[in-house]
Write a structure and sequence with these properties.
alpha+beta, two-stranded antiparallel ribbon, about 25% strand
Length: about 150
């Protein structure tokens, strides 16, 4: 089992392994799951910090329920397993995602994949140059939203 490998020592993140400190919102989790399924599969481990310190996750967090909701954000359900484990005496949560034979697409018809340790939209968004509207307040707001990734030209 994968937990036995983790108990021997935490391997660094790579194409097949992602550490996330906390249980993320369902839409973000769906993106991570789809990216792994559309690449080579792998493991998402919740409760481990970027510096590979085992922080654990709150025992009251309904991780399985969040995964179930995340899967509703996808048009097709990838093959996966998810479960609680103990590591260094703390609760961690593991999602094992299998490589999908067909693209996993979210409910907005967007596909994500994993390149190295990064999740990428497939195909990537090609951002058009910003064209000022002439309203300085509106332009400042749109530029800030674009920086945050909340606004893009689809």
């Amino acid at each position: 089992m994968f937990i036995d490998e983790l108990k021997k020592g935490l391997p660094p993140e790579d194409q097949h392994l992602e550490y996330i400190s906390v249980i993320m919102p369902p839409s973000a989790m769906a993106r991570e799951i789809a990216a792994f399924a559309n690449a080579d599969g792998g493991y998402i481990v919740f409760g481990v910090l970027d510096d590979m310190t085992v922080q654990g996750i709150d025992p009251l967090v309904p991780a399985a329920g969040v995964v179930d909701v995340a899967l509703k954000h996808l048009q097709t359900r990838p093959r996966l397993q998810y479960y609680d484990e103990k590591l260094a005496g703390k609760r961690i949560y593991i999602i094992e995602v299998e490589k999908s034979p067909a693209p996993i697409v979210n409910n907005n018809n967007v596909t994500y994949t994993r390149e190295g340790t990064k999740v990428q939209r497939d195909p990537p968004i090609i951002e058009e140059p910003f064209v000022p509207s002439g309203n300085p307040l509106m332009d400042a707001l749109l530029l800030r939203l674009r920086e945050m990734g909340a606004y893009a030209n689809y």
